[in-house]
Structure formats: structure tokens, C-alpha cells
Amino acid sequence: MEGYHKKLHGKVVLITGASGGLGEQIAHKAAEHGATVVVAARNLERLKVVSKRCTQLSGQSAYAYALDVSKKEEIDAIIDKVIRDVGTIDILVNCAGFGLFSPAIEMDWETTEKMFQVNVFGTMHLSQRVAKQMVTRGGGQIINIASQAGKMATPKSAVYASTKFAVLGYSNALRLELQPYGIQVTTVNTGPIRTDFFQEADPGGEYLDKLGRWVLEPDYVASKVVDAMLIRKREINLPWIMEVGARLYVFFPRLGDYFARTVFARK
User: Fold this and answer.
1) N or C: which end of the chain has fewer CB atoms below 10 A?
2) 160 is known as an active-site residue
3) Which runs of E-coded beta strand occur in the chain?
4) Per annotation, catalytic residue among 4, 63, 65, 160
5) Nearest CA to 115 among 70, 67, 171?
């Protein structure tokens, strides 16, 4: 059992969006498994708290870097700094992202552009930079936090769903391109998770209440993500009811539209 809990010993795991929510929980779980954890997000003070806890859990140094993933120059600088200060990155978890539930015709363009900069372009640039050093080393894993919204869009999520469709498409192609180099690409497609994400996405605070028992807890999702580290796993799909809905959508699109308008339209 001890060996299982230390399966990530000696591995450098970089997690973006790790100042809270799912990213923070993934950092803690990775540390419990012995990883050298590197956390990145905009809130450095909060990151220092997370990295300190990771050190307590892993018994080794953890690192925190301020990073706005919407800024390419910051990504370049941080990746270089991590490689120089910590070492080559074995596992990258692209967890940074945000959403805002609003009808498409009412969404302001500035928010639309920012969402693509963070959710899509940040993920793509980080993946590209880290994948290059993984190719040189001959192995590694990239885990992209996508969403069930990237498989089945629902009302008031046109822009957010578009970003996650893009992440899924990019990840699927990247997986095929990197497989010959021994690099695994895993996507994590979840429904709503009980995190601060919804303070910005749903200021009214009603969405999670309407979903009830289908809302996922961040520590549970984080455990699934860390369990998939160092394993050839194509996707993690949670909860099962939304994955069933997404699969039905492919084969029965009209029925899928019905579920998207009714069962899953709780915003």
C-alpha cells in the first residue's frame, strides 16, 4: 500500500489554476502520492498556502509561481523557470479556466475573448511548450481539464462550451501526435464541480442547487485525476448520467437536444 501512495515519487507535476478548487485538490492528492508539486495561478499568496500543504503531504519541496495563462510571455517565462529551478516536467495538468453563463447574444465580446485566451490558448501554449521537452526526454503526460460541456452544449453556455469543444478537439489530435513519443494525453470531462468556479459563472447561485446530487465534489474528481497519472487513460468522464447523455447526443441528436433543453438546462 505504501508503494501505491508513493507512485509519483520523483515525478515533477505542474498544475495550473491551483490556487483553489479542483486544481488545489489535485495538487494535494499528487503530493500525497509523493510528487514534487509545482502550482501556478494568478494568486501567489494563495498558492504559497497550497504549496506549503503539499510539502507537508509529500515530505519534499513544493513550488509556487504566479502565472496568468492568458499571457503567452508569462507562460514562456514560467516554463523556463520551472525547468531551471525544479527540473523537467513529467506531468502537466491544465486546470486553469473560467466560465460565465449567459445567452450568446448577450455575452460581451471582451469576456468571450478572455475565455478563449484562458481556456483554450493558454492550454494550447502550455501543452506545446511542455510537450517539446517531453519529446526530447521521451515520455510524459498531459492532462487537460475539459468538460462535459465540450461534448454536449446546453443553453446559456455557448461561449464556455465552445472553449471546451476546442480543448477536446485539440487534445484528441495532440494525443495521436504525441503517442509515438511515449507521451499520454488525457482529458477530464466533468459536469459541475462544487468550487468557486460558480461564483463567477453563476452569480445567482442557483445552478448547483438545481442539480442536487449530480454535483461533483472536488476531492473526488481530484482522486480520479491523480489515479490516472502515469496510466494510459484516454478520458475521465463524470458523472455517469451526463456521459450517457453525451453519448446519446451522438447517436440520437434530436433526443440529445431535448435533454440539453430540459434535464441538463438548469442555468
Assistant:
1) N
2) yes
3) 12-16, 36-41, 63-66, 91-94, 140-145, 183-190, 235-238
4) 160
5) 70
- How far apart CA 60 and CA 187 sit, in angstroms, is 28
Rounded alpha-carbon distances, angstroms, from residue 210 to 214, 216, 219, 238, 246? 9, 13, 21, 18, 20
The cell numbers describing 74, all together, are 508569462
The three-class DSSP label of residue 90 is coil
DSSP 10: T
* pLDDT tens per residue across all 267 residues of the chain: 344 458 999 999 999 999 999 999 999 999 999 999 999 999 999 999 999 999 999 999 999 999 999 999 999 999 999 999 999 999 999 999 999 888 999 999 999 999 999 999 999 999 999 999 999 999 999 999 999 889 888 888 999 999 999 999 999 999 999 999 999 999 999 988 886 664 564 556 555 455 555 688 999 999 999 999 999 999 999 876 666 666 666 666 676 666 666 655 555
